[in-house]
Amino acid sequence: MKTAEKTTYQLPIGPIHPALKEPVMFEFEVDGERIVNVNVRLGHVHRGVEWTGTQRNPIQILYLAERICGICSYCHPMAFSLAVERVAGIEVPERADYLRVIHGELERICSHILWAGVAAHEIGFDSVLFLTWQMREKALDLTEYLTGNRITKGITMIGGVRRDITPDMHPKIQETLQYYKEIFKKLQHVFLDDKTFQLRCKDCGVLSKEDAVKLCAVGPTARASGVKKDVRLDQGYFAYSDLDFDYITPDIYTGEVHGDVYDRIVVRLLEIQQSIGLIEQCLNQMPAGPIVSEPKPLKLLAKLKNVSGEGIGRMEAPRGEVFHYVKLSAQDAPYAWKVRAPTYNNILPWIPMLTNQQIADIPIVAASTDPCMSCTNRVTIVKNQDTSFLDKEELHRMSIQKTRRLQP
Length: 408
Description:
Blueprint: E1 8-13, E2 25-31, E3 34-41, H1 49-53, H2 58-66, H3 75-88, H4 94-122, H5 126-147, E4 156-157, E5 160-161, H6 170-193, H7 195-201, H8 209-214, H9 219-223, H10 231-234, H11 251-254, H12 261-285, H13 297-304, E6 308-317, E7 320-329, E8 336-340, H14 342-345, H15 350-354, H16 362-367, H17 373-376, H18 392-406
Antiparallel strand pairs: 1-2, 2-3, 4-5, 6-7, 7-8
């Protein structure tokens, strides 16, 4: 009797690949065009951000935290601020809480529209990529108008925000919100009604509700599988507890939950609409008062230098919950700083999402969680008898040596 031969093969993709915007290693076992097993390897982006933070004071760390991720450049420093404020017992003015919501929701609009363009690119619709990124320019223009910057905003301060939104700025904000209200139907039509999008995205990359809970998925990835998880509602930080909104799940639009790529598109598009409403509520309800608890940075640093304790900051970034842990020990710099970005939670869900899919679906399934490898990868230096400690000068010397070796 003839024994069956093995029909599966190994297909490595990454860490550098045209379909990957950041380095990550996929190891697929495929049977023809069908994926039967998946392994994901991280560890290709090491920047030493957390260790660098332990060499700086808390205000300096705000600008370092902004650079963890360009798309979440507001959420990271703000989550760090929440952690420090809880350790130091700093009361944030009520007006500042409303301002923080406005900036957070504006970043969500920017991020979700950017993601929509990337998703279109991954299935070959570059014309839709250009369309959505043109739409995103309005939000970036408003961000620059309110903060002075388009990406790294420099608006965060421990105990509040650095800039106010005055009444004469409201017309510009309302004009931008009206623009997105008017184009929302177009966005919805392009992504949700188009037959090609439906054929490529429906029943593709399915993540069941059970797997989403078991694997700790967060953000739109979890909500698209029917998991009602949102830190804005679960924790009620900033002014969110004063605002009227609810969890966004795909059944609001489709009447059912499949947990596929299409549902993740639905959730993000509906969240754009939700963010518009939240910003409008903030403009209408914002109280008068100061925008920061301590306007003098040196006085704030003097207070923080005498604080000891541990604190966490949780915030619903566009991709999901971002988590910052801080330990202060009555010194200029924190004793410890640890960051958990939402992509870290959404890596393991890739395995059930990619299993039994076609090879051609890998880019859009992976992109559907809106991954960020730079946010996720971290390196910790441990100094003991068995390991050597590389300081700044040694790393610089080694990088020069390697560059010279690579030169012809």
